[in-house]
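Before relying on records like the one below, remember that each one covers exactly one chain. Contacts with other chains, cofactors or solvent are not represented anywhere in the record.
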Amino acid sequence: MLAVGPNGAGKTNLLESLHVGTQGFSPRTRSDAELIRFGETTARIRLEGRRGQTSVRIGVGLSTTEGKRAELDGARLRAAEQLRGETPTLVFTPDRLAIVKAGPATRRAYFDRSLGRLLPARSQLPADYAAALAQRNAALKLGDRSTIAPWTAQLAVLGGALVEARVGLLDLLGGPFGEAATQLGLPEARLEYEGEPATEADLEARLERDLERGSTGAGPHLHDILIVSVSRDLRSFGSQGEQRTAVLALLLAEASLLADRRNDPPLLLLDDVLSELDPQRRRVLLEQVAGRGQTLITATTADALPGEPAQLLDVSPGAVVAR
């Protein structure tokens, strides 16, 4: 599906509404108020579709005075974010280049979200580790050694499990990522985990330094994931086109794995993805998403897509019309 229209027509708003409706949150902001039309106090998203032979109805209500409300097939959900477990969606927006370009924290957050989607049994590990880290750091600031010790032990256990899960995730993603990147013209692309788990002995050995700093100076909260082509770290030595290609390859790799594991291809939302791809890479991308489930691509003109979309949508302020 291709949505076209001039800049400012509302194409990204359409894509964002689909993300909120299927995931319960925006890929752009965590403030619900920013999703509501200026001058209004409420907004609502309603989606209808099919999952295999089963119909699906989703509703998400937004308010400036209350929390989000979400319904799935008429049943109220405890939290809107529960939708992400029901309707897998992956999104590319231009600011997703930060996965490659930004610092380690951005990559850790991205791959920890992927961990939740691809290895749901381990999805709670990042949050559990972050909670234990916060408790140990609070104890370090107070300087109470008797309080620090139990959190040191727990942090070592959770940190080891988190590193193991992240490395397992990269092993899972590595093959599909390399294949997608090669097809998109990025040679010998791979993912490398940078960091070792901090054992309880490691944390105890640096306790005096951690007390001085008031924070824990070792563990997976400081690790990085390198995105490499041949021998180049693309964060430092990749062109913007190569960085964009790497992010697309990550998305396609995860989409392929989700489709295999769930027998339910994710919805792909690709915002302004074609603007900096050459014609060959555009054709490869189209081949990659064809037959993979439903994909929505936005562009300013229909000729940006090297082929005929299954459906063409004209977007103008306040209206979406199927051509």
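The chain has a mean pLDDT of 94.
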